Amino acid sequence: MDETVFDVAVIGLGYIGLPTAASFAAKGKKVAGVDVKQATVDAVNRGEVPFVEPDMGVVVSGAVSLGNLVAMTTVPAADAFIIAVPTPLAEGNGADLSYLLSAARAVAPVLRGGELVILESTSPPGTTQRLGAYLLELRPDLSLDALPGRNQVHVVHSPERVLPGRIMIEMVTNDRVIGGLTEEGALLAKRLYEVICQGEILLTDATTAEMTKLVENTFRDVNIAFANELSMICDKLGIDVWKLIELANHHPRVNVLRPGPGVGGHCIAVDPWFIVDAVPELATLTRTAREVNDAKPHHVVAQTVAALEARPGASIAVLGLAFKANIDDVRESPSVTVVEELLRQIPDARLLLVDPNVEEVPAPLAALGISRLHPLDEALAGSDLVLLLVDHDEFLSPDPRALAGKTIIDTRGIWTQPKQEEATRGLATVGATASA
Ligand SMILES: NC(=O)c1ccc[n+]([C@@H]2O[C@H](COP(=O)([O-])OP(=O)(O)OC[C@H]3O[C@@H](n4cnc5c(N)ncnc54)[C@H](O)[C@@H]3O)[C@@H](O)[C@H]2O)c1
User: Fold this and answer.
1) Which residue has a Cα nearest atom 41 of ligand 1?
2) How many Å lie between the centroid of ligand 1 and the Cα of residue 100?
3) How many other CB atoms are found less than 10 A from the CB of residue 271?
């Protein structure tokens, strides 16, 4: 039997778990990376990163070749366990904690007492307490507090705030919040994270740490919802929302964000629901913001359908499928919702989808019969209406001649907002009709 006790075992080797494991291993810790997917474990043991993330490849391959990072499918004994498994939205807008509970079942048998169990997954308030209670249910011989005659485990929450594309930098430089079920647990976790973290480490209780992460994303969601609501109000009132926002932002204490076609991704579009689910009777603004942002793609569809009323069988160039600029991630993307809805409402229209960062037609759209993506110039040339959904760099300065005579719906304001007037003056002269 293998008696190795690792310094750290990281459960879940995805966008968060793998860089965490590699960062500790790069600092000389003996790290076990655990994942249920054999293919992920095999890739990591070859020193490979099974997804795209800048700068991670060299750290992972270095840690593996030094022997500091080993991947496996079962949880070994370790001094600290870091759980970084998915916590997606469940039916009814709560969190699906099945992955977390499954990870807990894998950790419980190897606990000897004295270990840290750190939850990094984004979690609804109370989840860390629930994790602690579940571990005790599985291991009644242990304790979460210092009790005579019982071995103690220290359960803490430390949410991750890194931005995909900058994970290896932000994992080191970001400030980190740590919330413990006990103060001692939080202090022990602080000592551990100091190995990889150069940012400030702030200690609190577990539920406040859970809420901190949710509040950060909810703050963004609420502010974007205000901008999106304004854009819909302005359409109704016949006001240029971009000009309006620019004027309002001249106030020294006002900073209205830019509207868009909705909110996507697996964080901002998801995490506020965890607050709503926890306290539905009080989280009215949070819920409304979610509803406003979820309604925006349907508003964009209504605008598009209205613009095409007189032209049955028209072609639409749809620019951008990712959930935000300059990434390839289409999870929860409002663009996908817009295209799905257009296919349903105007089945005779021809949709020419363009996204320079996305390689394959997203599965929900492939299921509806979209067979391929188009190069930008081909889609513009073949379209009557141009629907801009994402402000990818490649879309910022189109050839004005390619847009001549076409109807334009610019949901990101990159061709129509006042600050871009100089750059896009040509567009006005080719007779494009723009709306926000
Ligand atoms: N990706 C981000 O940008 C980001 C940022 C902040 C927080 N988070 C949060 O971090 C958590 C993890 O997100 P992610 O993006 O790394 O997810 P991911 O899907 O990239 O990776 C999760 C990994 O966990 C593995 N897994 C699932 N169940 C398991 C189990 N029982 N035992 C072992 N492995 C298991 C999966 O196979 C997968 O490889 C989520 O709660 C997410 O909300 C993510």
Assistant:
1) 121
2) 10
3) 27
With a 6 A CB cut-off, is 417 part of the ligand 1 pocket? Answer: no
pLDDT of residue 164: 80
**Residue 147 pLDDT:** 87
| Per-residue confidence (pLDDT) for residue 149, from 0 to 100 | 84
Domain range holding 18?
6-205
pLDDT of residue 417: 60
Domain finish residue from 205, 225, 245:
205
User: How high is the pLDDT of residue 254?
Assistant: 98
Helix (H) or strand (E) holding 276: helix 271-278
- For 159, left (φ over 0), alpha (ψ -120 to 50), or beta? beta
CB 30 within 8 A of CB 6: yes
Model pLDDT, residue 432: 29
CB 56 within 8 A of CB 96: no
How many domains does the chain divide into?
2
Alpha-carbon dihedral 212, 214, 218, 219, rounded to 10 degrees: 20
What residues pair up with 319 in beta bridges, in sequence order? 354, 388
Ligand 1 contact via 268 beta carbon (within 6 Å) = no
DSSP string, 98-155: HHHHHHHHHHGGG--SS-EEEE-S---TTHHHHHHHHHHHH-TTEESS--TTSEE-EE
Say yes or no: 164 and 260 in one domain.
no
Question: Is 14 touching ligand 1 by the criterion CB < 6 Å?
Answer: yes
pLDDT at 418: 53
Calpha distance 49→381 (Å, rounded): 39
The two three-digit tokens of residue 1, written as one number: 């039997």
User: What are the pLDDT digits (tens) for 241-260?
Assistant: 999 999 999 999 999 999 99
All residue ranges of the chain with pLDDT < 50 are: 1, 419-436
Is the Cβ atom of 84 under 6 angstroms away from ligand 1?
Answer: yes
Task: Give me the helix-helix angle, 284-307 and 206-237, nearest 10°.
Answer: 30
DSSP assigned state of 323: S
β-pair type (154-157, 176-180): antiparallel
Task: Go through the chain and tell me how many residues it has.
Answer: 436
* Same domain flag for 192 and 331: no
Predicted pLDDT at 196: 98
Instruction: Verify that 264 and 384 share a domain, yes or no.
Output: yes
- Find, among 308, 290, 300, the residue nearest to 222 by Cα: 290
Ligand 1: which atom is nearest the Cα of residue 11?
33
pLDDT in tens, 63-103: 999 999 999 999 999 999 999 999 999 988 899 999 999 99
Residue ending a domain, choose from 185, 205, 225: 205
